[in-house]
């Protein structure tokens, strides 16, 4: 049993806003749902599967009601919550549901406003008394990974900076990007230290906004007008300190989700023409590239240096919308926009300055939670038909 | 700086109460499984490695080495250094480093446990040995 080729992404929409003090979170969900439904060219009354995560106010049933989805038709819901990669996991789950005949048109939404207001705290796990006082945040949890990666493999701040430099080269062409200025390695190194060894420019933006997807059957996708993009491989995985045994923060759960997706797709990292890689921080990208097999463990620094991630310049064009580092990291969750830019590339709808030629195979990979503590990862491999 | 910081009191629960009772005596406890022999942290009643319920409390030496660290410079409560310490007994534990020069922490450095008061049971931290 496989989901290879069983589901197509027929609709995408990224909200253009990056700051939405005058809108409600539910309203943003509705706006992105409407955008993706219109992009696909379907009616909202055709939607029979709905997927959302922890950012959806109240969860699935209040959202289904608020969005006015057709409850006579809706027959599959999934509110899997794995932080920023939830939507990549939803994509795989939607394909599974479609392959099993449990739904035929799935809507996945993400939206929220961390730039406008404080986000609600995450629910505590069993570890709460043993960890919460120590103040693990995204910045320092990823700082801990970077510190150890540098120690074990000689990775440098200059190498990490190249990831931000590449993202900025792409963001200059995105009219919606929060940060459009092209930056240099020196700019990154001269930005203030936030949590050693990560500088401010090693960190992603904080943005309001959202995005949505329509996932459907091959038959329905072929009846619509958009270029055909199909899911051919998917993987998901989780990792944590596991009782503190053999702690190793230099790799992520991507080391498991990636191979699962590539095996299902029947391709290798060498076949990928464009990569959407989760970029909450520069170190996130570097570790994911290693874990996914684009280079050997420990060689990520060398791989990303000298513009190797810049479209038209390097071997692996990544995050051509500017990514979370420069364009958008809606609700502190970058998984949705990773899928959307991969679909744009496969459709040939990316900005002409960053569009990858003959882009027929792309990867969208994300993580959720804290790489330095406990987290999830999910990998999707997409093919233009 | 870290002395002045107010730390939240552990809520505690039946599974971990013995840890916090020992902390009040200045003892840093870990759990060890008598079936597979592995130690783990934070403490669970069922061994996370072999799923045996034959886990017992053991007083740890409180000594270890820094696995990694990061100095959080942008914080409303002032800078703090978070990290993991690999205990002499094996498990690595998340902690903050206190009562030492946070700019000079090094991976591999020897550290030891210190307890800091809360309104409830004291919390374990680590400082340079």
From TrEMBL, chain A:
GO molecular-function term, one example from the UniProt record: acetyl-CoA C-acyltransferase activity
Start and end residues of each Thiolase C-terminal domain: 245-383
Name by which UniProt lists this protein: Acetyl-CoA C-acetyltransferase
Stored PANTHER family: ACETYL-COA C-ACETYLTRANSFERASE, NON-SPECIFIC LIPID-TRANSFER PROTEIN-LIKE 2
Record bears the keyword Transferase: yes
Top-level taxonomic group: Bacteria
Pfam families from the UniProt entry: Thiolase_C_1
Transmembrane regions listed in the UniProt entry: none
CDD domains from the UniProt entry: SCP-x_thiolase
Organism: Bradyrhizobium stylosanthis
UniProt keyword terms in alphabetical order: Transferase
Automatic annotation (TrEMBL), chain B:
Pfam family, one: OB_ChsH2_C
Residue intervals of the ChsH2 C-terminal OB-fold domain: 57-116
Superkingdom of the source species: Bacteria
Domain ChsH2 rubredoxin-like zinc ribbon: 20-54
PANTHER family membership: BLR3430 PROTEIN
Protein name: OB-fold protein
